[in-house]
Amino acid sequence: MRIVLLGAPGSGKGTQAKNLITHYGIPQISTGDALRAAVKGGTELGKKAKAAMEAGQLVANEIVIGIVEERLGEADARKGFILDGFPRNAAQADVLEGMLQRLGQPAIDKAIHLHVPDEEIVRRLLERAKIEGRVDDTEPVIRKRIEVYNAETKPLLDYYAAQGKLVTLEGVGDVDAIFASILKVLS
């Protein structure tokens, strides 16, 4: 199973990815987690990513693509994966298709979009910032991230819809009920 999880930051992609990992036994490839680890580790990649992340901007394509291709080439991703945070736009989706071909892997099976209203996203991310001590989750930065997501990432929904791979589900409500909806569309 090769799944792309789509949704604004804070839409519940990480939570649902954990459920999918347990259910299918495949890894989650989260570009956000990988970038935060690089920043924390002070790597060259992390230094480049840090300024963009703190300003609420997207990290450069080359950096994100490099992280994803490296990860998709690892043994545990051969039987399937859950992508969270990549692709961010149709151009990256094209790059992903080429990547999978080069790696000898099948194409994406489904793109699952978790729709959550913007104000709910702001509420969730401010709460998460308090709990996890995330310095990149201030209200102005969150609103900027939503704005960037709406402008640059939402057209990706059309890309996967045109391929018949997109399923949009409401990402508000009981976590288990949302997961049951995801499993239903994947079966």
Automatic annotation (TrEMBL):
Top-rank taxon: Bacteria
Pfam families per record: ADK (PF00406)
On whether RNA-binding is a keyword of this UniProt record, the answer is no
Q: Which GO terms describe its cellular component?
A: cytoplasm
Catalysis performed (reactions): AMP + ATP = 2 ADP
> What is the phylogenetic placement of the source species in the record?
Bacteria, Pseudomonadati, Pseudomonadota, Gammaproteobacteria, Nevskiales
This protein's name = Adenylate kinase
Q: Does the keyword 4Fe-4S apply?
A: no
Q: What does this protein do?
A: Catalyzes the reversible transfer of the terminal phosphate group between ATP and AMP. Plays an important role in cellular energy homeostasis and in adenine nucleotide metabolism.
Q: Which Gene3D superfamilies match?
A: P-loop containing nucleotide triphosphate hydrolases (3.40.50.300)
* Quaternary structure annotation from Swiss-Prot or TrEMBL: Monomer.
Q: Which processes are annotated in GO (biological process)?
A: AMP salvage
Query: Where, in this chain's numbering, is ATP bound?
Result: G10, S11, G12, K13, G14, T15, R128, G173
For this protein, the record's CDD domains field holds:
ADK
Species the sequence originates in: Hydrocarboniphaga effusa AP103
Q: Which gene encodes it?
A: adk
Q: Which residues bind AMP?
A: T31, R36, Q57, L58, V59, G85, F86, P87, R88, Q92, R134, R145
